[in-house]
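Replying to the earlier thread about multi-chain prediction with a worked example.

Input:
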Amino acid sequence: MKLRRHWSCTLRNRRELRRAKRFLFLLPSLVGVSCFVLLPFGQVTVSSFFTVLTGKFVGLRNYGEVFQNAAFGLAAANTARFIAVGIPLLLAGSLGLALMIHGISKPDKYKYLYLLPMAVPAATMALVWKLLFSGQGFLNRILGTHVDFLGQGSAFFILVGSYIWKNLGYTMVLWLAGLKSISDGILDAAKVDGAGKVKSFFLITLPCLKGSLFTIFVVSLLNSFKAFREVWLVGGAYPQRDIYMLQNVFYNWYVNLEQDKLAAGAVISAVILGTVSLLLQRLWDSGDR
Amino acid sequence: MRDSNGRRIRMGINMCLKIVSRCCVAGVGILVCAPLLLLLSGSLADGIEWNRRIQPLLRDSQEYIEWKWIPDYPTLENYKELLFYAPDFLVLFWNSVRMSFCILTGQFLVGVPAAWAFSVYRFKGRGVLFSIYIVLMLLPFQTTMLAKYLVLDGMGLTDSQWAVILPAVFSTVPVFLIYRGFQGIPGELLEAAEMDGAGQWDIFRRIGLPLGESSITAAFVIGFFEVWNMVEEPLAFLKSMPLWPLSLFLSQVGPQQAGRACAASAVTLAVSLFVFGMFRDSLEQGIVASALKM
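Result:
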């Protein structure tokens, strides 16, 4: 970090000339992002305080409507529950797996086995879901029952399961990278000092992995929103109650041309996610010092 | 004497633990891949067999769907039908190929230099801008859907494939992933190149690109899986079916054509697997690079 800063210091005298040139690297991306997301999103934010049809200023009424909307409430609760259940399970499961794989020799073939689900298209997954969990499906055959697992509360856990299934390998490789970067010296020293395996895991391994946690969490959160694809492909616009996600609500508003609510909803979700992400970055940066 | 016994016991326990964890790892791995095998075997069963198997689902009766690891009469009929007698499938297949190619090329031209700028240069507002990029990366498509629609509508691009391609080109996900890879390049190296009089562009091309290669590759392999799987974007912006990518076609095949659906899934999967197989090493290295904080 220091060297990098030093490097840019030596350039100070030629800075003026270089600045324009450097900016060219960023320019295309910046223009595109502003043009397709930032500026129009600003417009959406402004429009969320007006009615679309008459263009009358209505203050926070659109927001009030969104918060009172039953579908929005249900979907927000479901999405929150999905994130709260899915991400900890995924992080813990993949860490456990990474620890196991880290311990065995020649782990490569297993790693590829676990990375494989990343390549599986969502539509394929949806088909497998139907064949496994429908009333006459595979699981019922084994259990000897006729329960439509996709048509009741268990659909939520199937969704969590498929999220974990898909991301387990990816997250595990991320953890493995963190594990590899811990020097054996520290662990050996702890062993000599009489620390048991459990103790050295909690006092050395876990704190050292804190550095990887940011990326892992961000990526897992990002991928948790993608579970919507399976929801859509299995349940369409109105899936089972427990897997009715915020994305469903937004999409339905979009299709029904309810722009007022859509604009307000978009701003609300952007504010929440923005806050979460800024908090994460703050935490991450303060962990450094 | 007692000590050596203790050591032997401890070694035995360690051995057992190792075997147990190896079994766990392999077992979970097989469980992870089982659905894919089911799918492949399903794509080899012919229409008549599928009809028989799938009957319970259609008639809502008390029987179960039959699923065998090996079909009664393995055949490539489904593939033949799909690849030679179903023109719509081929159209959508090439749609997917074309869109993926355009998006990934665009992301390469736009995203890699941006990641380089964020990782190497210190300029005013860099921190704020990068925070914005991370927030944008996290926002699900539905949040920015209306904003994107407004722009695309203004440009007259709705219901054309550009409506899907253009916003995806400016996705900030690859910028983030590649940025982490570039962070791993030591500052001294860049400094030395600068001293030797290399221009900014040369440094990027001769040092940045080769050293960041694995994370760039990983970002694009991940990006490919993403694009190949697109559901939300085409659903929102493409109304006419001939423009759709393959990933939406699969959602249209009903259970009556389960064999065909399996075959279509298998073809979609095969392309992904091919990419996965080609780049699996750099994929792993790139993921590793993105996890380490410099």
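Chain A touches chain B through 109 residues (CB under 8 Å).

Feel free to reuse this layout for your own posts.
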